Amino acid sequence: MKEKWNSLSPSLKIYFILLSVSALGLGLSNGVISNYFKDVYDVTAFQRGLIEFPRELPGVITVVVIGFLAGFSDIRIAVFAQSLTIIGILILGVMTPPFEIMLIFLFINSMGMHMGMPLRDSIGMDLIEDKKVGKRMGQFKGVFTGFTMLSAVIVFIGFRTELFSFKTDIKWIFIVSGFLLIGVLILYGFLAKSLRHKIVHEKKVKFIVRKEYKYYYVLTVMLGVQKQIMLVYGPWVLIETLSKGPDTIAVLSIVGSFIGIFFIPALGRWTDKFGIKTMLYADALSFIGVYVLYGFLAAGFTNGNLALVGVPVFLAYLIFIIDRMSTQMGLIRTIYLKQILVDPQDFTPSLSLGLSLDHIVSIFSAFLGGIVWGKFGPQYIFFMAASLSLVNLYVAIKVKVDNSDELEEQTV
């Protein structure tokens, strides 16, 4: 950040530190989860898709859980969510349970993570000064990405030096992740004390569905498809087809995160400068391009037309990194929702509903993706996602903005 650290409010300082430790803790566990499934349970592509049901189901029911806890402040709900995340990952760290039992604790961990996602954004939005939404959101995402990169560095060093391994009884990388997330729990306490409970949204138990938010809902549904395809089957091409381990995935994450440190704050500034409509076009086109190219590479690897070493593999790495940049454009959707709010109290419920819509589609996409991979080949998963991303382009065309680049109306 260009502005001086000392110029920030105490609450913002705590929030930036909280984001940093969160990214570090979550990065250590999320960054290696596909390798964990492969190395510990030797799952197939079809089974990998099925695993996404207990892993993504929490995203569907998050809106219900947060709705029933709506009488509490966002921070208190975030503390509860963080506790679930910690319990799930520590159990997986201290033991290697049977596959079915592992899925239960995976569900608990995922429930906490998915509840925490909209709450972190909502708390952050409440701390942002007027007229600095794009800039500050870009900084938030940039800090999160920077410490995600640091977690990837730790993963790379840890697995290369065999400090971490999935062959041991105790999965130390999950233990370290759990203790970092305990630190986040403590930081939420400091943030609540700093704010003196200013962020206490006394919300009624309600689920927000408004016609004014229809394009936001469409974008979140499409994100569910896009995210699931690339987050699950993007790495799986490297792990299954190219036999790459956690250290390789970590290096790619390091490079992607390093670029993201600069890219994401710039994305926030570009959104302020060029407006939502332009950035929605960029969002749609980036996804289409990434999926088409990755599909051709996956086809080449599986049918033997491309070598499993050299330039083709480098291109796969490059597309994988570029995709990490594309997925960060979720920032645009959050800012878009903020601009079209009919009622400021709609923000957290709408984020939660969007998250649920996202994950309903994610579960179906993961299941369908496993079938497509097994029956037809991995390339068709990515071609399918590229075709569906045309919907994002349709939304970009239909969104109407006025001369000040503030979203004013939408037409069907």
Textual characterization of the structure:
- There is one protein chain.
- The protein is an all-alpha fold and 412 residues long.
- The chain has a single domain, classed as MFS general substrate transporter like domains (Growth Hormone, Chain: A, Up-down Bundle).
- 77% of the residues lie in helices and 2% in strands.
- It is built from 15 helices and two strands.
- It has a two-stranded antiparallel ribbon with strand order 1-2.
- A hairpin with a 5-residue loop joins strand 1 and strand 2.
- Helix 8 runs antiparallel to helix 11 and helix 9 crosses helix 11.
- The radius of gyration is 20 Å and the shape is globular.
- 51% of the residues are buried.
- The C terminus is likely disordered.
Which ranges are low-confidence, i.e. pLDDT below 50, for 5 or more consecutive residues?
402-412
Give the CATH level 1 class.
Mainly Alpha
What is the overall number of helices?
A: 15
* Architecture per CATH nomenclature, i.e. the level-2 architecture: Up-down Bundle
Proportion of β residues? Answer: under 5%
Give a summary of the structure in a few sentences.
The chain has 412 residues and is mainly α. 77% of the residues lie in helices and 2% in strands.
Highlighted features:
412 residues; mainly alpha; Growth Hormone, Chain: A; two-stranded antiparallel sheet; 15 helices; 2 strands; globular
Strand and helix layout:
Layout: H1 10-30, H2 33-41, H3 45-68, H4 74-94, H5 99-127, H6 133-160, H7 172-195, H8 214-241, H9 246-274, H10 276-303, H11 311-327, H12 330-340, H13 347-375, H14 379-388, H15 390-398, E1 399-401, E2 407-410
Antiparallel strand pairs: 1-2
Helix pairs in contact: 1-6, 1-7, 3-5, 3-13, 4-5, 4-7, 5-13, 6-9, 8-10, 8-11, 8-12, 8-13, 8-14, 9-10, 9-11, 10-11, 10-12, 10-14, 10-15
